[in-house]
User: Fold these one by one.
Assistant:
Number 1:
Amino acid sequence: MNPHWTPESWQKRQAQQQPKYDNPQELADAIRRLTNLPPLVTAWEVDRLRTQLAIAEEGNAFVLQGGDCSESFDDCNSTSILRKLKVLIQMSLVLICGSKKKIVRVGRIAGQYAKPRSADTEKRGDVELPSYRGDIINQSGFTPVERRNDPQLMLRAYEKSALTINYIRALSEGGFADLHHPENWDLEFVRNTPGSRRYQQLLESLSDSIRFMEAVSAGELTQLTRVDFFTSHEGLLLAFEQALTRMERNRGWYNLGTHMAWIGDRTRTLDGAHVEYFRGIRNPIGLKIGNSMEPDELVELIGILNPENEPGRLTLIHRFGAEKIRERLPRLAEAVLKAGQRALWSCDPMHGNTQTARNGIKTRSFDEIMSEIITAFRLHKELGTRLSGIHLELTGEDVTECTGGPGNLTESDLARDYRSQVDPRLNYEQAMEIAFLIAEQMK
Ligand code: PEP
Ligand code: CO
């Protein structure tokens, strides 16, 4: 345990990307209420994820982490949650069949409500208002009332996370998640495409294998009736994270608002508040690594975040872009190897490949996303490290936010059904195609 650490010790450091609240009393009241509410997850679940991540780090499992760039309160409904779960379960099946490995499923879900922004304000015409920072902080509508930072929204975010996690738990425990009934994961809008036919074929061969195994073992394979599904979000809003940090007797401090949290690329300053907060919790944590990370800095950060060099503790999520990865990853991976530091390497092929389309809409190209993934597999192999995870922004909906992929979406298609308030996500078809391509890489 860290003698000089407390859940509040981050407050003595510089905290980037925090909202300014205009009423300290209201903020203190919201934090006090949150601190008294029950946890959303348990330390046993958190430790189970950590054990599974340690297995992935060794190369015996693969991590599929994905979900919205930013969840919205309005999307806390059965259809939206169900579709996200369906696409992640379907993708994990494709990956299992390709890799013959266990897949660790981690949603960007049930708490992914705070966003870092490049500017503090947004200007439309002559009107300038505070930027939208996610539903836990303010609202996306462009009026002064909606853009006010409101501490009450932290309580709403806690409630929405609780509702989401409750539904996910119920679904993953049985019935819905039973591998004997993959038809439960069908999505009503899926067209008869080569991708969907490939998925159906995969299911048929899987069903054959299950029937075979059950025949020779003379009974139902009961492990197949449920799935493990974990939650994660960016631990950005430190007052909120602090309020959900609880002492588990004899085990230490856990963030019991989520199973896993990560530090964003904009808030990973060595002596900053986020690194201070994260070093003290027992959860498995992620660290986003963008193009400005230097080898020495990374080694120092790992030293602070995982001083005992524990397996499963730290996931390094790199996000360089399809081209830049060639130059950036080798220097960092070599430095980490040389320092003898252990970590799970994961690739986020989304955030280094964001572009603005001609019509001004933020988008990402499917081909660049795929290219970064393929390069990541190759480079890690050459470097003697291992790519053990993928981190995606995706949705189970039929949206038009990224270009390319099986539906060949072009820039002019983007306006048709663009719903993200923040970053563009892979739609269902694109996400499944990525799963097949990753499975191919892992064979
Ligand atoms: C994100 O994951 O949505 C994000 C903001 O990423 P990064 O910190 O890598 O920019
Ligand atoms: Co994003």
Note: The radius of gyration is 21 Å.
Number 2:
Amino acid sequence: MNEKKLQKRIVKITILTAAVSLLLLACSCIVIYYMTTAERTSYQAQMQAFINEYKINIERQFDSDMGALETLAGFISDSRILTLENMDEGITKNSRQTMFLRLGYCEKDSDELRISLSKNMGDALSLSEQNEQVQTIIRKAWEGESVTSYMYMDEILQQWVIAYAVPVYDNDTIMGSLLGVKNLDAFEELLNRTTLSQISMDVDWVNQNGEYVTWSSDSFIKASMGNIFNTQVLSEKEKAVIREKMAAGEPYTTEFENGGKNYPLYFEPLNRNGWYLVCTDKTSEIRSPVYFRFLIVIVTFFIILALSIFSILYGARYLRKNNRQLIGLAYYDPLTGSYNLPRLRQEIQELLKNDSVYSIAIINIRHFRYMNEIFGREQANGILKAIARILKQNIHESERYCRYMADEFYILLNTDDQVQARERVMAIMDQVGTLSENMNRTYPITLYGGIAVNPVTLPKNADDVSAGKAAETLIHRGEFALKHARMGQDNTVVFYDESIYQAENLQNQIESDMKRALSEGEFKLYLQPKKNLNTGKIQAAEALVRWIRNDGTMIYPDQFIPIFEKNGFCAELDLYMVELVCRQLRQWMDAGYEPMTVSVNQSKLLFYRSDYVQKLCQITDQYQIPRTLIVMEILEGLAAESIEELNKNISVLHEKGFKISLDDFGSGYSSLNLLARLEIDEVKLDRGFLAGDLYMENEKLKVLMKNIIRLAEELHIDTVVEGVESGDNESFISRIGAAWGQGYYYSRPISAADFEKMYLEKEV
Ligand code: C2E
Ligand code: CA
Ligand code: CA
């Protein structure tokens, strides 16, 4: 994986992680939100229940106080006498629970208020001098209402009190108002009661204007401010809403902040005097559970996110480092730090996509193996490094180089000019040559190099495959040129040559394919007729091999025989051809054709093989072919080593019945001497004698031919002239006494089947 891809993947993973985490976070928030809402709803219901309890208790207290006073009023009505003793008696009887601090009576429309105070009769007081609250409720009671006053400071008792007033009837007429005054102890006690352990209520009691009636002792909203609307913990806006709600006598729930925390705040109407209970739960800091849960989740989430991202990044760094190491191993030569071949190939591939003007030069150090021994490994490595440095200095920005296989350097040059390329490579070689001088060594560093010019111009936007192929071709050509430079001397530079390459390529193909071709019968028997010039008939033929491949292409012997002669395969092929000839003759004889002599070309290799004659006999025996029908064509080169030796072999073949023909006579340094000394049956004058203008113009050549033929005749050797291409040729060779003619004039070599059709006659 390359770095870019890795980076992309890391970014993807990171984004995915973040996205998944955020999703989880959102889910947790939603869950928390619902949980909290549910919790809050149930909490509010609980609170409401507590508040109701307070409310009921307080109202009960009112009702019982009021009830007590009304009972007392009834008592006064019944006795129709109003004395302070009566009143005291009433108080004693009824006020066990109600605990009025004092009672008072004020006759309707009178200003005289008669008051009992701790069972002692006081003087009559003037109503108009009493507290405004007292005056109001007494007057209301005269009108028939049972009323409760607001809280007020009793001057005499020196404490905050609340007063009740009820009408006192005489039959159906109101006689006056009965007044009961109570301190707030009972209410305060109620308000300060802690209902449940989890909830610690702060309950204050305010009138419609927000003024405190009474309060719990440690309220958050300090009653000392006198009015709840003086508090700072509620906003003006909130206060306006509360005022509105209170004016309408509706309950209201809100929150307030105190010391950075939020608390619930309930306004519950008391159905009396426009009073309200103002409640809060000091233990419940509203936002805290939600807030803290959110906070915990968010903090946990960010920790997890940070950890995940950290591990991703750490992992990525590790991977990248590893990757770099791998890339380093995969793409760089650890010794010189230059590219290695796979990387260079990649680079070439990319460069060729945009520019075809390139050549590749490959240089190799001669005898580097010995240098390792002479200089020692370390110094030899030093030389390689120095060469890499020289290359680095010599190449341009658009050029590349690499080291490959110890001592080979590939250089991609941005030129297609052979002269320029050679000059640059030679310059590099010269610089490398100076290295040994610098090292005070006498051993010269010489190089050889191959250069190939890029033959391919890629189309625009070429894909990797075609660019890769182009790179491969270029490198391959460079390597081919280098191989040919190895044979040269010193700093040789050889350019890639297509024809040499093709020939070599074919040769390689031929060599790698020959055995298979033989076993699969791709070598075919072709025959070229030989005309008997005395009878004017085709009475012999020469077997010539053709390689016809599976795909139908034909390869001529000129292309493969020399190769087979070198690699030894020719001996096998020649025997195979003898076999093909015998098989064919057998078929023809079986088919009733008159048999005809067939010449077979024999290579030097085969001729000296110890089992040669035996093999030949085996074949002729197998197909029961009279050996006199088989003529062995040999080349004069066979006699080069020893004529005697050759004659020995020939006589063995003669003994077995085979005939011997000397092929291509006159093509090399033939000597007439050879004709006289070799025990041959036939000589074939090379087609070079008749070749074109030379023969027409060169009278001497004609004389030579004439004399060779005459000599052969005298030595009882048959003569065949090859290369008869025209009637002129034929009449000339007949005139000079040649016995046989062979050539395109009669026929080109043709397949055995065609030969059969054209030249064989059934025996009569
Ligand atoms: P070669 O033995 O001298 O065979 C004669 C060659 O001359 C044949 O080429 C033939 O096609 C060609 N030829 C015949 N008439 C004329 C003509 O009128 N004008 C011209 N210009 N050429 C003519 P081919 O078949 O290509 O064979 C080339 C050579 O390959 C042969 O030369 C022979 O040395 C060798 N060869 C062919 N078959 C075999 C084989 O089975 N074994 C061995 N060892 N060598 C073979
Ligand atoms: Ca021949
Ligand atoms: Ca020949």
Note: The chain has a mean pLDDT of 85.
